[in-house]
Amino acid sequence: MSFAQIVALLATGAGYTVLVTLACIATGLLTGLGIALLGRLRLRGLGWLLRAYTYVFRGVPVLALLFLVFFGLPGIGFNVPPLLAMMLSLGLVTGAYLAEVFRGAFEAVDPNEIMAAEAMGMRRRQILLAIEMPQMLRFSVPGMLNEFTTVLKYSPFAYTVGLPDIMKQAMALSATTLRGLEIYLAVGLLYFAIYKSLQFLVRGIERYFYVPGFTRL
Amino acid sequence: MALLEVSGLVKEFDGKPVLNGVDLSLEEGQVKVIMGPSGCGKSTLLRCINRLVEPTSGRILFRGEDVTRPDTDVRALRQRIGFVFQHFALYRHLSALDNIKLGLRKLRRMSDAEATDRACHELRRMDMEEHRDKYPAQLSGGQKQRVAIARALAMDPAVLFFDEPTSALDPRMAREVVALINQLFMDNVTMLCVTHDVFLARYISDRILFLDHGQVRAEGDVEQLLDAHDDPQIRAFFGPGTRAR
């Protein structure tokens, strides 16, 4: 079996790796944005809950959380499918980290612009969506790309719950051929290719929304 | 009836009075300049009138309506007051055109085409239409202030508030903006302007109000206040040579 054949065989799991990564990124983005936006609105009585979420989910190991969801919840009657288990563990942990990235980026929005919008008579929600969020997302790109990369690198945990991703394919192939060196080298190359594609996509979005001279003050 | 009547306005921060019983009235079409040393409460006064800062006590009548009442529609009040800030406060992620359109779309509920027409009209008025697609970082200070004025005017306010409109500009740009504000004065736009700029005050105003330690220390026309006033503190503020300008 040539190196190219090994890569081709492993690539059959790449679809699952991409699926898990994108599903967890989407979960993370939704929860992270939700937490950051709610935090920004400073709703009374909610602050402690949001802080507790980020505190807990940033402190728990992803694998422990994944096993808790996938192997623990069936014990009380909840059977969680593997992809959903990944989203409820890696996705929610990512959400907690992204919420912090977004919180920091919100702080970089010029308070004078917010005051100008208030002086114009805009509602808090309008200001948040039309002024603060578009700026915050632009400031967040480097932090988001870091988090997305982390999600990709944690995605091999999917094999522990039975998803046939690249890692699962590699372990099966390695067990039958005993050519671990070439197989795991091919795994590294595949992950690198996915990482570069992800980076290319994010940079493309960043270029599309580029505003001349727009930097942190 | 005056457009704006402020009486006994007090604002305290942590028990310390910044405004200490300010009285002020502004007629339709009038331009009034508020001057005074740094920290005397000038900007706080403007912010209290449009309720960006909550007054501690006192009364503000806007076209006869008491806008300090708890049931006042603060957002509606703010939409009737155009505000131009010292540091322009343009939305940095939006082009000059979109800076103006935002309020028209969100608050006036105009269609995109209507908002564009209105924004272009205001940009033309400010001689800025050719820069409509530029972002704030691509504009000079004077150009930014023109866009900020256009943004305020587009909302068709009853009065324009200026908070030190020339203090972040170099002298040449400041003169440009002064000429522009003077044009608004000629167009009968009601304005209340906080400034340290004696040149601006002389050029645009028929009345100057001198604020000191949160109180109106004097009010009069330009000649009365800038030229050898009886009050030594006011003379000291404006300094010698003011008359010569």
From TrEMBL, chain A:
Coiled coil: none annotated. Gene3D superfamilies: MetI-like. Pfam families: BPD_transp_1. Keywords: Amino-acid transport, Cell membrane, Membrane, Transmembrane, Transmembrane helix, Transport. It is a multi-pass membrane protein. Residues 14-202 form the ABC transmembrane type-1 domain. GO terms for cellular component: ATP-binding cassette (ABC) transporter complex. One of its GO terms (biological process) is amino acid transport. The chain crosses the membrane at residues 6-39, 60-78, 84-106, 183-202. It is found in: Cell inner membrane; Cell membrane. GO terms for molecular function: transmembrane transporter activity. Part of the binding-protein-dependent transport system for glutamine; probably responsible for the translocation of the substrate across the membrane. Belongs to the binding-protein-dependent transport system permease family. HisMQ subfamily. This is Amino acid ABC transporter permease.
From TrEMBL, chain B:
The keyword Membrane applies. Pfam families: ABC_tran. GO terms for molecular function: ABC-type amino acid transporter activity; ATP binding; ATP hydrolysis activity. Residues 4-238 form the ABC transporter domain. GO terms for cellular component: plasma membrane. Its main location: membrane. Gene3D superfamilies: P-loop containing nucleotide triphosphate hydrolases. It is found in: Cell inner membrane. Keywords: Amino-acid transport, ATP-binding, Cell membrane, Membrane, Nucleotide-binding, Transport. InterPro entries: AAA+_ATPase (IPR003593), ABC_ATPase_HisP-typ (IPR030679), ABC_transporter-like_ATP-bd (IPR003439), ABC_transporter-like_CS (IPR017871), MetN_ABC_transporter-like (IPR050086), P-loop_NTPase (IPR027417). It is a peripheral membrane protein. PROSITE patterns: ABC_TRANSPORTER_1 (PS00211), ABC_TRANSPORTER_2 (PS50893). Belongs to the ABC transporter superfamily. This is Amino acid ABC transporter ATP-binding protein. It comes from Thiohalocapsa marina.
